Amino acid sequence: MDELFNPNLLYSKLFIITFIELLILIAILSLKKAYKEKLKILTPLNISFNLFGLSLLILFGLVLLTLNFFIYQYSSFTLMILTAVIISILYIEMGIILSRNFFSKFFDDQLPKEIIYFIGFILMINAGYFTIMFILKIIKANSLI
Predict the structure, then answer these.
(1) What pTM was estimated for this model as a whole?
(2) Confidence (pLDDT) at 4
């Protein structure tokens, strides 16, 4: 994996990875606010959209960026595994929120809840897979263009 992770533009790549993870977290928080839903997996994370919540998101992003940098110093493969785990957890949380609210209204409550949860889970895992493949392309890149 070390030969795949090109060390050129290391800080830019780590910043982009962290930014993508934060965008997914912001999407989850906005879904939480829109549907007035409690988070199931990320329960201690109760961030609102005000100045304090924005500062917590920035602090969380800086901690995640620092963690990504230190883990990259240990092993680039471990960084990819950690990124895949974080993205998977975030997308599973998004799948739960969407299954309980959007998909149940979309299918007009004609399908059983289990099938609606299954559809949400499959769609979000596919989204996570494509996000991880996008991050892998970013990691392999030799230049910004």
Answers:
(1) 0.84
(2) 61
